[in-house]
Write a structure and sequence with these properties.
The chain is α+β, with helices and mostly antiparallel strands. It is 18% helix and 35% strand. It has helices at residues 30-36, 83-86, 90-93, 118-125; strands spanning 8-9, 14-18, 23-28, 39-44, 50-51, 56-62, 66-70, 75-80, 102-106. Strand 6 and strand 7 (66-70) form a beta hairpin.
């Protein structure tokens, strides 16, 4: 399993990448996609949807189960990975790259500091 060092992680298995311009990219971890199995559908709230940290912003449907997506920080969806509509398997194939889910405007950047480092995340999934 890989855990890129430029990301922060949540206990719910989401990752977030600070884009450095007040926005961040969010997806699920390699561990999460492997536990879910073959992903067949991704449903995400629309652009403009506002949420608080830990609120649900979508779901991932796999052959075995459906899992909710929890916001790592408070914000607003500013972009959705529309490729996932036709190719949800991108989440399995490249969870940290082409399988990203949303880009958000970050409401409170200090919340990023409270998320897990790659090493901390590795410990909880070990």
């Amino acid at each position: 399993m890989s855990y890129p060092t430029d990301l922060k992680y949540t206990k719910e298995h989401e990752w977030i990448r600070d884009n450095g311009d007040g926005t961040a990219t969010v997806g699920i971890t390699d561990f999460a996609q492997s536990e879910l199995g073959d992903i067949v559908f991704v449903e995400i709230e629309p652009e403009g949807f506002e949420f608080e940290q830990d609120e649900v912003f979508g779901t991932v449907e796999a052959v075995k189960t459906v899992s909710e997506l929890f916001a790592p920080v408070s914000g607003e969806i500013v972009d959705i990975n529309e490729q996932l509509e036709m190719e949800p398997e991108l989440v399995n194939d490249d969870p940290y790259g082409d399988g990203w889910m949303v880009k958000i405007s970050v409401k409170e950047e200090s919340q990023l500091d409270d998320l897990m480092s790659p090493d901390e995340y590795k410990e909880i999934v070990a």
